[in-house]
Design goal:
155 residues, single chain, mainly alpha, 80% helix
């Protein structure tokens, strides 16, 4: 087991914990809002952050476990070797350039956010917008690492 596989296992465990935490926070938020008429903006934003982390970090896990969406109607009719070639080409032509583009385009936005320590525009919101924006960068890196890991295992 290489370091990328260990990172993937750790990430999967973290995502599962984020999901349970998000679920509990949504239940608490609903309970507080509709029973006690209390609303905490920071809780709503925390749920939004957790949802973003689950989605963005979970994409690389889906790619690793081959549980991502495919066009099975077409794929099932192709030979395994043809499917493997299409998958490698898809990684090289679509995913790698996409990740590099996202990294390139998001770098300046994320750097500005960290420089000003950007916080929520809502009163009572979380002062961590720079961390949320950084998750875009981490998403791209994780996806790129997983694609490289898959391509090196294919050869």
């Amino acid at each position: 087991m290489n370091i990328f596989d260990k990172l993937s296992i750790l990430l999967k465990s973290l995502i599962i914990k984020f999901f349970y935490l998000m679920f509990i926070l949504v239940i608490i938020n609903i309970f507080l809002r509709y029973i006690f008429n209390i609303n905490f903006i920071f809780m709503q934003e925390l749920v939004m952050y957790l949802h973003a982390f689950i989605f963005l970090f979970g994409i690389s896990i889906c790619l690793k476990e081959n549980s991502h969406v495919r066009i099975d109607v077409i794929a099932n009719k192709l030979a395994q070797k043809t499917r493997d070639i299409i998958e490698v080409l898809g990684h090289l032509i679509l995913i790698v350039p996409f990740c590099l583009f996202v990294i390139y385009e998001s770098t300046s936005m994320i750097m500005r956010s960290w420089i000003i320590m950007e916080s929520s525009s809502e009163p009572g919101g979380l002062p961590l917008v720079y961390i949320l924006k950084s998750s875009i960068y981490v998403f791209s890196l994780l996806l790129l690492i997983e694609v490289i890991n898959k391509l090196t295992k294919t050869k």
